[in-house]
């Protein structure tokens, strides 16, 4: 399975992250691994706010704030505010009061400036080749050549040098966060155990569903004590064999005195509040596949196996897996991202016309380790691919082929082969919990780090912005 497509990052919330630097290059930010506020198109909108170059009046520029002696100007606030307002409009969201939005934009610019300064102090760098590839990726995602993209940016009133500077800053900030925050976030096995215990303790019975398999060794009323001990030993033998990996259904058919023995002792998935309290208390903290018992009740001795558990706060026992294949072309000085996208577009047309198969084209042209397998990436669960790749896969039906997609690794053509429901193993469920906890810890660590960075900065507010 191709390793590079399966790198993961914890999400960064808009509350503590950068505002989308520009609606014009949201896709490019994502291609570099950042999380923009939304995916926006370069296509004009009938309801979009006027661009700075067309209808917005020019104002005399002045300094609105100093961040460690570095100025933020009114025109910077004004340009960012117009782009954010246009983004909100295109998303169909409610527009906040302009004064409030202006204050938020200014504070985000302050926070952004502090991070860029810190990155430069720590000698974090973005070379020209990386910046050029990011810009090429943005153009390719908008299905334009780089020259056309720059012309379109200029027609929207955005200076190309400002675009490149902002894009460089976002890559700088991302690299700084990876170095200072993400690399230090660790999730231990004890953290996972604690999370499971917390969810088990806090989940109401109505929100907990259990599928139990059951062996009952019946103890009739009035049975002599010696016989009770024999029956207990019989139940213990069942439990020992089950814990050793024995077929529980076969054990139920052989030893159980309960009516459900004919179905291998299985109750089926039921809400926990419809099961005996003895059974729930003994199994709610178990992992799927674990065995409890023997348990004593007035009816006799019970041995239980947890076949499935679904509860709020824990990943489902089943996930939808997708099998996909792709063709990857990596941009080079000789092959721009736009040219790669055009080449993949021609491959797509050949496949649609029956002139070639996806697998053959992948073997011949893909620059990925999956090429010998015809681009096959194997079965993948949700969260295994990087976000921009997974988003496209999720939008495809089996047999469909995507449009060329620019990611942080190059330009892809993707085909979904099939999907299936797959039971999650206990190990996989713990890995899913690990990802949840890593994201939570990462968000908290990022927030703390940003607060500390902001608190150590000297910020002097001058005149209020006049957007």
Into how many domains do the coordinates divide? 3
Looking at the structure, the CATH topology of the largest domain is Triger factor/SurA peptide-binding fold
Alpha carbon gap, first and last residue:
51 Å
Strand order of the largest sheet: 4-3-6-5
CATH architecture of the largest domain: Orthogonal Bundle
In this structure, how is the largest beta sheet organized? 4 strands, antiparallel
Q: Helix count, per DSSP?
A: 14
Alpha-carbon Rg, integer: 29 Å
Secondary structure: helix percent: 40-55%
Overview of the molecule:
The protein is of the alpha+beta class and 467 residues long. It folds into 3 domains: 7-186 and 441-461, Orthogonal Bundle (Triger factor/SurA peptide-binding fold); 204-311, Chitinase A, domain 3; 318-423, Chitinase A, domain 3 (Roll). The chain contains 14 helices and 11 strands. It has helices at residues 26-31, 74-91, 98-121, 128-141, 146-155, 160-180, 189-202, 225-243, 248-255, 277-283, 337-352, 358-365, 387-395, 426-456; strands spanning 63-67, 70-73, 208-218, 266-271, 291-297, 300-311, 318-329, 376-380, 405-407, 410-423, 459-461. The strands form 3 sheets. The protein has a 4-stranded antiparallel beta sheet. Strands 8-7-10-9 form a 4-stranded antiparallel beta sheet. A 3-stranded antiparallel beta sheet has the order 2-1-11. β1 and β2 form a beta hairpin. α3 packs across α6 and α4 packs across α5 (146-155). Residues 1-57 have low confidence and may be disordered.
């Amino acid at each position: 399975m191709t390793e590079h497509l399966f790198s993961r990052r914890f999400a960064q919330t808009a509350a503590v992250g950068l505002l989308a630097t520009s609606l014009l290059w949201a896709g490019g930010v994502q291609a570099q691994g950042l999380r923009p506020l939304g995916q926006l198109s370069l296509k004009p909108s009938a309801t979009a706010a006027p661009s700075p170059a067309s209808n917005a009046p020019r104002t005399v520029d002045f300094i609105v704030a100093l961040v460690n002696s570095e100025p933020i100007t009114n025109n910077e606030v004004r340009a960012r505010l117009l782009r954010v307002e246009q983004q909100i409009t295109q998303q169909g969201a409610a527009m906040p009061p302009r004064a409030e939005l202006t204050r938020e934009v200014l504070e985000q610019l302050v926070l952004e400036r502090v991070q860029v300064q810190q990155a430069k102090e720590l000698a974090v760098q973005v070379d020209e080749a990386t910046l050029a590839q990011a810009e090429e990726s943005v153009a390719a995602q908008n299905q334009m050549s780089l020259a056309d993209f720059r012309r379109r940016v200029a027609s929207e009133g955005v200076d190309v040098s400002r675009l490149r500077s902002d894009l460089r800053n976002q890559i700088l900030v991302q690299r700084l966060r990876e170095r200072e925050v993400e690399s230090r976030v660790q999730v231990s096995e004890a953290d996972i155990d604690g999370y499971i215990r917390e969810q088990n303790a806090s989940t109401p019975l109505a929100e907990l569903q259990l599928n139990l398999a059951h062996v009952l060794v019946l103890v009739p009323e009035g049975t002599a004590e010696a016989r009770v001990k024999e029956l207990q030993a019989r139940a213990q033998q069942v439990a020992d064999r089950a814990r050793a990996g024995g077929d529980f259904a076969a054990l139920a058919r052989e030893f159980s005195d309960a009516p459900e023995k004919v179905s291998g002792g299985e109750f089926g998935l039921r809400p926990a509040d419809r099961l005996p309290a003895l059974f729930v208390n003994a199994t709610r903290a178990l992992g799927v596949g674990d065995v409890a018992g023997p348990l004593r009740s007035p009816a006799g001795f019970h041995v239980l196996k947890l076949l499935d558990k679904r509860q709020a706060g824990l990943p489902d026992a089943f996930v939808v897996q997708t099998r996909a294949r792709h063709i990857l072309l990596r941009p080079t000085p000789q092959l721009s991202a736009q040219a790669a996208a055009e080449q993949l577009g021609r491959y797509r047309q050949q496949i649609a016309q029956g002139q070639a198969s996806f697998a053959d084209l992948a073997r011949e042209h893909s620059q990925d380790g999956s090429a010998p397998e015809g681009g096959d990436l194997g079965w993948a669960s949700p969260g295994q691919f990087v976000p921009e790749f997974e988003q496209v896969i999720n939008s495809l039906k089996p047999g469909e082929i995507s449009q060329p997609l620019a990611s942080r690794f190059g330009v892809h053509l993707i085909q979904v082969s099939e999907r299936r429901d797959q039971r999650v193993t206990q190990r996989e469920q713990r890995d899913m919990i690990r990802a949840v906890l890593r994201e939570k810890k990462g968000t908290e660590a990022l927030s703390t780090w940003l607060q500390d960075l902001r608190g150590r900065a000297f910020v002097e507010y001058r005149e209020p912005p006049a957007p």
